Amino acid sequence: GYTGLRLNVTKKKWSVNVSLGTTMGEQWSSDLYNRTYKLQDTITMQMNNSIYDKQGHTNMYYYRAGVNYRFDSTSTFGFQYNGFYNGRNDVSENTNTITQDDVEQYVLKTSTKTKPLSINNNITANYTKRFDTLGTELFVAAQYGDFNIKNISNIHQETTFGGLTTNLEKRNTNQNNINIISAQIDFTKVLE
C-alpha cells in the first residue's frame, strides 16, 4: 500500500512544499497455458507452460521539495526538486513441459531472481513575469533530469530430456543512465 506525508507552508512572499511517499507490498501474477494436439491421429502431444511472477516492493520512495518566492504582485520565482527511488526484489518461475501420450518427454524450468533499481531525480527552476492585467506574460524555465535503471538477474535453468537433467546458472546485468537538460521561454501577448 501507499503511505505519504505532504507539507505546504506559505508565509508572506514565500511558499515551501515538501512531500515523502512510500509504497510497500507485493504484486504477483500467475498464468497457465495448455496445448494438446494429435500426431498421426494416434499420438497425443501436450505442451504445458506455467509462469509465476512476483514483484516485491520493499524500497519504493517518492520525494519532493520546492520553494517559491513572489517578488511582487507580478513576478515569481520557483525551484522544485522531485525524486524517485525504487529497489525491488522480483522472482519469476517458468516451467515448460512436453508430454507424449501422458509420458513426460521434456521439461525446462527457469527461476529468475531479479533486483531492479530505478533512481530518478529532476530539478526545475522557473520565473514568471506578468506585464498587464490582460495576461501578457513572460515565462522562463529550465530543467535537469537524471534517470538511472540498473538490473541484476540471477537465472537458474534446469533442463530434463530423456531422463537426463542438466543445470545452468546465468547472470544478466544491465544499466541505463539518461541525463536530460531542457529550457523553455514563452512570451504571451494578449491583445484587446
Secondary structure tally, helices:
0
Which residues form runs of ≥5 with pLDDT under 50? Answer: none
How does the overall form come out from the CA principal axes? elongated
The residue fraction in helices comes out at under 10%
Q: What is the H/E order?
A: EEEEEEEE
- Radius of gyration in whole Å, from Cα? 28 Å
- How would a textbook summarize the main sheet? 8 strands, antiparallel
Distance between the termini: 52 Å
Give the percentage of residues in beta strands. Answer: over 45%
The average pLDDT value, as a whole number, equals 92
Kindly state the number of beta strands. Answer: 8
> Structural class, from secondary structure content?
mainly beta
Q: How would you characterize the overall build of this protein?
A:
The structure is a single chain. The protein is mainly β. Helices cover 0% and strands 88% of the residues. The chain contains no helices and 8 strands. It has strands at residues 2-11, 14-39, 43-72, 75-100, 103-114, 117-130, 137-161, 164-188. Strands 1, 2, 3, 4, 5, 6, 7 and 8 form an 8-stranded antiparallel β-sheet that branches. The radius of gyration is 28 Å and the shape is elongated.
